[in-house]
Amino acid sequence: MADILDRQAEIDLVRRAQTGEAAAFGLLYDAHIRKIYDFIYYKTLHKDTAEDLTSEVFTKVWKNIGQFKEGSFSAWLYKVARNSVIDHYRRHKETMDIEDCWDLAVKDDFWDHLDERLKVEDLRRAMADLKGPDRELIIMRLWQDMSFKEIAAQLGKQEGAVKMAFGRAIVRLQDKVSLALIILGPEIIKIWTSQN
Amino acid sequence: MDQSELKKILEELYRLEPDLRGQEAAIIKVISKMADWRPETGFDRAFAARLKAEILGQPAAAFSVPVSKNIKNSLLINFTLMNKKMLAAVGSLAVLGLAAFMLTNNLTPKSDGWILPLGQDESVSVLPDGAFGSLAGLTAGSGAGNASGAPLGLGAGPELATNSAGGGSGDLAVRTQADAGVSSSFAGTSLAAPMADSPKPASDIAVTSVSGVAPDAKMMILPYYSFKYSYVGEPLELSDTSGDVYRRLKGDGELARRFSGLIGGLSLPDLDIKSFRNLKFTNISLAEDRDQGLLLSLDFNEDNIYLSANWEKWRIPEREACAGDQACWDRFRLKPEDVPADAELVAMADEFLADHKISRAHYGEGRVVEDGNWRIMYAQATDQSQVYIPEYASVVYPLLINGEEAHDQSGSYAGLRVSINLLKKAADGLSNLSPYRYESSAYSLTTAVDAVIKAAESGGWNGNWYGGSENVQTIELGTPTRSYVQIWQYKDNRSQELFVPALIFPVLNPPANFYYGQRSVVVPLVQEMLDELNSRSVNGGGSSGQPMPLAEPTIMLKADEAAR
Description:
The complex is a heterodimer of chains A (196) and B (564). Chain A has 196 residues and is mostly helical. In chain A, 72% of the residues lie in helices and 0% in strands. Chain A has a domain at 1-104: Rna Polymerase Sigma Factor, Chain: A (Orthogonal Bundle). Chain A has helices at 7-18, 22-44, 47-63, 73-92, 114-128, 132-143, 148-155, 159-175, 178-195. Chain B is built from 18 helices and 19 strands. In chain B, helix 7 (136-142) packs across helix 17. At the A-B interface, helix 1, helix 2, helix 3, helix 4 and helix 5 of A face helix 1, helix 2, helix 3, helix 4 and helix 9 of B.
């Protein structure tokens, strides 16, 4: 499976998929499935949910490929994925403000593993301190290894603006009480586990 | 976290906000910690394979043709909601309908095959001059935008202008800048091999260079280049002051109504067909129930026929069972020597067309079109094992317009396309088969050689979308050939397929030391399109090295709306 497509190749494949060529869409699928799944997982921290939403995203995109007219295809995929996650939380929560799992109380399968839970609780606090878009920058830059240029393209923003937002998110993390937990996390975990 | 990657992030942050250097130690800790805490996602390749089979197992044509939302949703939703008995009944009816239609239209295979008469007989109707309206907006939409990957040749025309905040060249600048970044990034990337359960996507195997950052051993450091085009071909002479633009004629509804007439006499379980009024087929899909079976889809809105793999019949259970076992997956990866020679692929496609009695009367000779330009990437890769070789190849039979082979806006051949599954060594799909019915209308062509060369040296229709860089590579363009280029125009919520006269300039010296996928530069000869193209380059919209300042690209919202 291809994880990256040449830009021109992607344009050609989208064109072909729009003319009904399933194999062309298959190549687009191969190129993007991992990144989209991971992106959704980072926003749900639940494997089954991530798989369900990934299915939803690619089915939706395939059904609507003919209507795609403007912009970068991969940016479109990310946008559909983002909306699917938001819709998912809207379906399960009354509030309209939830963008992803980091706004929620600790639950779901990711949190069920004791070893992980300790460090993830710190992580969750840190991420919860950020605004949704800033969290997404952290996810894309540090967890998905996307360059600032790629992120800018996916978000439809200027690269400079993305870098600045990222920098401020990092600074914001420093300023929060959770900084101590972040930096001292392993040590705290060691202390905690030795005491329990 | 990789130290070079960390340095790269820091350098990029400091460039914008130098004051952050004073907090470097704390920032490094935060970034490192956040990166180290990346959750394991548990990506399951078996899930991905199953999902792919499920999604692509749905008839492609019913979903993918760019027609109006209202039309598109009508029959599709009904089919989705029908139960199996109903589907079977409708499927049988469709077969009966097809058979009846073929009989009533004396459609029998001839010695040289047959053309599916989805509408009237093949024809080219001559219309008055300029009958398709202004073509200027098409250049704006599909030129720079297409170069940046924005409209994909489909977002042209008034609809684009209406949705652009700035309109005109301002809008072009938006897209050019936004995508120049992507282009530069992708220019330095390659098709990458799959990784079973690696927490890091393969995107890190190639990065653009950053000064002061030492290359990591795992990384393929690719410099960021800009391109300057230089015409080195024979002197040009353009004497035609006008030329025909062609538009494909699509279904007038008559055919669909004739099919629909067959429905009235049949009742379906749990549903009174007669209770519906003015029913007509918009599409029909039939599936072959056999190993390596195909899906046959007829689209009456677009007058197109598609063949695609019936994915359930093309699955590879052994591979799906690999789950997270990377070594297992790798056993199914293609090697260069697994890819048949072009002549062999063309022979397979020829045989496929012959087997299904598909006429090639209006198409040129088949040519292999490389998916993803993998050969270039393979040749240039420092670690060739990382280069993914696509599992499909395509053979394109260029559509003949006025006796000339049609191209798309990238300069690739446009026409009948046969897909070949390289793992199975068998043709598994066909697209762009439609009746040869066109209208033609004369438009003013340019005779200004200088203007044409200027447009070519600005990157032509695709623009110079690799953006600015200190590393400038000169791309030489050879003597062009005249052809027709396929573009789309949106009007009245429907897409129109146009073929406009254009020159195709071949790229003579594609760079050998880094990836550059473009094989040719396309310049339209229609006067108003060329004027607009050159105006764009003057305004810095599509072909200047340094992009213009930009606003939020509102066009993304449109794409988003389409998927919600």
